[in-house]
Design a protein that fits this description.
rod-shaped
Amino acid sequence: MIGVRFVLPAAVVLGGLIVMAFGSEIDLEGGAGIVSAGLAIYAMNWLYRASVDGDRVREQEEAARAYLDAHGRWPDESPGRREGTAHQRP
């Protein structure tokens, strides 16, 4: 997975930089295209990871709401203390 996320885009960008460094003026445009393709690979990987993480957070929120419906409190609240029921001084 590391290879697809980081090594592949880095290799493509490095290849583009090599084409730009050792080529003629026309190769600068081709190398820039290769570099931008490597950056696009990295960006697509990042967007995919962000969308999967968003699904995970959404599922956790749904589970917490189901717990609230079943128990009357959030999962991270202590069972004996509800807001507004704490002892107040007269």
